């Protein structure tokens, strides 16, 4: 039986890159520890299976050393105040998939004579926070009254996404890699990212996060679009040790969703803090962490009070179950792919301007029947 001479360092790198421990893979690859130490070598079939299990291109195992895999956009994610060194295969694949979709839509927009979107790059980190947030809200038309009338966070988020998408921003929200339910995205790694372009700005939201957290992520990434700077970040309202860009985007997002003047005007004398937070989260359709930060911004909480309340709330939220996702593929398609992008891609393909092969790849589907039904669902759901 032919064995493949793969350096143990590459096998270890692939496992760690996928965030997997030896114990997780032991049942499928009982001699993995010996492969990594060099005492044994895998067969070609075993190597192919290992590549699949670790989501690693099999060709990487024939390189002399582990390859560098930098993200093609600035990475502002941090863990404990320090940058995160290695993106997961899931994150890399989603960024690259969204880049391909964006490039296709940019070419499509140019072909049909679409004008550049003037709001892209219209702000700088020196732009006033309150005025910039108000300008974004006005451009979207998503004001507080409309948001508070939404019966659920899900409805508020869908409205927010639809208005950003209608403005020209390709908003894509998914909790899995393409359509693979076995590859779920981890919001602890990233909450979203923005890919800036004058004709095809794109925002991706991690659908595995809570709906309230997704509201803030979308607002944060829209601030990146207004700033004209692509980035991936954790978009946490009270994140510390961030650079000037992330701090500015967080402040704009918080003001966009929860205007400080409105917070001050809606306070009730004698109301306990937990009741105030609960009431305002329902009104503004944002997370309790955002409300706590805005109460701190309004100087209604001391720094020590804010830190204690914020840390307690983080622990409470961490114990809550994550969204399960799923649902009808066609009902969620407009959110997963961006209605603007999916409608344009289906139309272009049907008219013969785009190959079915390319459309299928960008949508992560393999059947013509699925593609045709997707087109019908987009028309019906208008």
What key phrases describe this protein's structure?
two-stranded antiparallel ribbon; 382 residues; alpha+beta; 434 Repressor (Amino-terminal Domain); 8 strands
Write the layout of secondary structure elements.
Layout lengths: L7 H10 L4 H4 L6 H6 L6 H10 L24 E2 L2 E2 L5 H23 L17 H12 L3 H6 L3 H15 L2 E5 L1 E2 L2 E5 L7 E4 L6 E5 L4 H17 L3 E3 L10 H14 L2 H6 L7 H12 L3 H10 L5 H16 L10 H9 L1 H12 L5 H8 L4 H13 L2
Parallel strand pairs: 3-7
Antiparallel strand pairs: 1-2, 4-5, 6-7, 6-8
Structure write-up:
- The structure is a single chain.
- The strands form three sheets. A four-stranded mixed beta sheet has the order 3-7-6-8, sandwiched between helices.
- The chain has 18 helices and eight strands.
- The protein folds into four domains: 55 residues, 434 Repressor (Amino-terminal Domain) (Orthogonal Bundle), CATH 1.10.260; 180 residues, no CATH class; 52 residues, no CATH class; 52 residues, no CATH class.
- A hairpin with a 2-residue loop joins strand 1 and strand 2.
- Helix 9 crosses helix 10, helix 12 packs across helix 13 and helix 15 crosses helix 18.
- The protein has 382 residues and is of the alpha+beta class.
